[in-house]
Amino acid sequence: MSYKCGMTVTAPLLAVDAPSMLFRAFYALPSKITGPDGRPVNALLGTANLILREVELHKPRAVVLCFGPDAAAYRTELYPAYHAERAAGRSRPARTSRPTTCSGPTRNSRPRWAGGRCC
User: Fold this and answer.
1) What is the pLDDT along the chain (119 residues), one digit of tens a residue?
2) Which end of the chain is more exposed for a tag (fewer CB within 10 A), N or C?
3) Measured on CA atoms in the order 18, 23, 28, 33, is the torsion positive or negative?
4) How many C-beta atoms lie closer than 10 Å to residue 47's C-beta?
5) In the chain, what are the domain boundaries?
6) What burial class does residue 14 get, using C-beta atoms within 10 Å of its C-beta: 0-12 exposed, 13-18 middle, 19+ buried?
7) Axis-axis angle for helices 18-28, 42-58 (nearest 10)
């Protein structure tokens, strides 16, 4: 890709919607994954793993983690029915059971949680 100023871009830029990624990772991994102080780090671990996987896959020139207080407001502006079915005041969706043993690669070749470590 080339720009008018003569600069050539050789690799993509990876922009990450950080709150969305943290939310996804928080509910994807068990809360028993904790740091030395006993606080859960599942969201951080899951987000880091997802970003690292994309970096390996796409080899971006840079990674940008985007945060903002009104980051998701555009979704409801563009599509008013976005999350319209969610009950007001509900802070957490119900957790589903997670596998406790390694089940190997899944349909899309990602390993599953294996009771205490990722396989």
Assistant:
1) 555 666 677 889 999 989 899 999 999 999 999 999 999 999 999 999 999 999 999 999 999 998 876 656 777 777 777 767 766 654 554 544 444 444 444 444 444 444 444 43
2) N
3) positive
4) 22
5) 13-69+95-114
6) middle
7) 120
